[in-house]
Design a protein that fits this description.
The protein is built from 1 helix and 10 strands. It is mainly beta and 175 residues long. It has a single domain, classed as Sandwich (lipopolysaccharide transport protein A fold). Strands 1, 2, 3, 4, 5, 6, 7, 8, 9 and 10 form a 10-stranded antiparallel β-sheet that branches.
């Protein structure tokens, strides 16, 4: 039992110590991972974060019930002894979030059923019962796409339509 706890702790440290090109924040920087349980599937190049997952980078935060980190294959010339304990896994290729997914930045808050991050396109895609809030404005749809580096957001209605409520600023009249 104690050995399992040590292995989980080492796996979490390995995941946090690796260089991460993945960006959930346009600011970049280190990615901090917290969860109730962490499982390392080394042969599959995956780390599973299970239970109350909270990931932070810069000014952005991703929360979900579970998150799966999938790592890119290392190039043959890369030294597997670098990048953290046990060599680490390398660069995060994809993050898959499921259940009560929240993506929060200073500019927006989004919630949905599922979310994924693709490092190659630097894109976050959320699906299922999307609610997007910017200040007092609210939009709802089925598919939200956030191009992180470009700071571009697209909301699609899926089989339906998007719905929005826009609250204009109150300007006092000059009477």
């Amino acid at each position: 039992m104690a050995l399992n706890k040590v292995l989980v702790a080492l796996t979490a440290l390995t995941a946090m110590a690796m260089p991460a090109a993945a960006q959930i924040s346009s600011q970049g920087g280190p990615i901090y991972l917290n969860s109730e349980r962490t499982e390392s599937l080394e042969r599959e190049r995956k780390v599973l974060l299970i239970g109350n997952v909270d990931i932070q980078q810069g000014d952005a935060r991703l929360r979900a019930d579970t998150v799966t980190l999938i790592f890119a294959e290392r190039a043959a010339t890369e030294d597997s002894s670098s990048g953290g304990l046990g060599g680490g896994f390398g660069q995060i290729q994809t993050m898959l979030a499921e259940g009560n997914v929240f993506y929060i930045t200073p500019e927006m808050k989004a919630k949905g059923d599922r979310g994924s991050y693709n490092a190659a396109s630097d894109t976050i895609t959320m699906t299922g019962n999307i609610a997007l809030m910017r200040e007092r404005d609210v939009a709802e749809g089925e598919v939200l796409t956030v191009e992180v580096g470009k700071r571009r957001t697209t909301l699609d209605g899926g089989n339906g339509r998007t719905r929005m409520v826009i609250e204009p600023e109150n300007k006092s009249s000059g009477n």
